[in-house]
Amino acid sequence: MGEKILLEELRNTQNKFGYLKGSELIKLSKEMDMPLARIYGTATFYSFFRTGKKGRHVIRVCNNLPCIANGSVNVIKFLKKELGIGPGETTKDGKFSIELTSCIGCCKKPPAIMLDEMLYTGLSEKKLKSLFEKIK
Amino acid sequence: MQILRKITKKDFDSIMNMDKKEIIEKIKKSGLVGRSGSNFPTGVKWESAFNSPGHKVLICNADEGEPGTFKDRFIMEKNPELLLQGMKIGRYVLDAECFIYLRGEYYFLRKNLEKKIKEMKLDIKVVSGAGAYICGEETALMDSIEGKRGLPRAKPPYPTSSGLFGRPTCINNVETLANIPLLLSGKWDPNLRLFSVSGHVRKPGVYELPLGTKLSYVATIAEAESPKAVCLGYSGGIINYEKFKDLTVDDKSFKENNFFIGPGSLIFLNMEIAKIMKNISEFYVHESCGKCLPCREGGFRIMELISKIEGGNGTKKDMEELKDLAQYLETCFCLLGKSYGFMVCSAIDNFGEDFERALKRS
To answer: Among A131, B9, B57, B81, which residue has the least CB neighbours within 10 Å?
Structure first.
């Protein structure tokens, strides 16, 4: 089936441009011979895709019970202190966005976040400090 | 652990030399059922796909997204070869084109999986999800691979007759596929299951335990900290621990008490039921695909009512409306909405007194 998979094309496009630009979706529509409405519909359905600019790096904080039971609220507090933003917001310099996310499967080492395409677990204050020292 | 066993080259070559129909018969006789929680007999599914005309598709459903579930991740991290051997057998039996639909959150596993696929000279395409729990539903998963919004399809037609791009498609969970080489190489205990244990426990993790284990035993080995409730993922019900700690974890005992093992997730919590339900409702509202009215509208209203109750402002009328809506969600198009309604009913049935207390606060 050498057909292109739209999910993969959208992910590659987003990684290249930071978000799913309209002009790129129009290009994809022609390349994949798919109606633009279908492509836009798919682009707006999935949590990981964004059709508007967000922070260069997206921090997704797990917001389900195993992480909540193990201090995910402290992760959010730390991020507020460190970056000055909360869930749903982007830093003024456009570097970071924070979102709440559904369970990311790190329940063995809670609390956990997803930063871009990597998972970071067991986020004590110490671990958070060292992680942000590296990426800030 | 049985799930970490390595199949010898000799044993694997023997399996690949078996007649295709013989393999299907063996799987049917083994009693292996879908480990996503579907409990559908795997041999029957493979046979159904085998007998359908057309170029078949085999999809590994690695979109593990039920909160508190991480057993498939465990298999893909610790013994990916076993999963890939299961797919190789499926490819052989069904002469199928193979995919792994890997949830976007597990993207970090993709490079290694693709490396192993290359090493084992397999032809399997990995597709990454993009953060949609509903895409773990097999028909929504197929729509997702087809480039559409992940909306569930009506069944019939069943995927084994008309699935991905209309072709006969067999979709199996990671744990199910990993068990295929184990059961075909003779030494297999069908009673062992993987349980993802998490929450207010000192030793969270994946535990391989026999069906029939007591819930209190799981609480002991995972060192649960004064559990009040055990959420069976976000779809199997909520157990009142004090009342049911001697319950054995098996399909019969669970069903008798209106619980479901599902993918085997046990979230032990020392938390108020209203707070638990608030998070569960927020999850479902976020993950609802929006296709059907009861889930989209009823589900949202349920979240509003639970928030009100959790905030100490709930009235008896709110409780009545909540019970009504929870039952109404039985009419949802797919299992996501139905499970949402079921969880609310389970919370009310098992923690009625706690809800009464929450109401009295207002």
So the answer is: B9
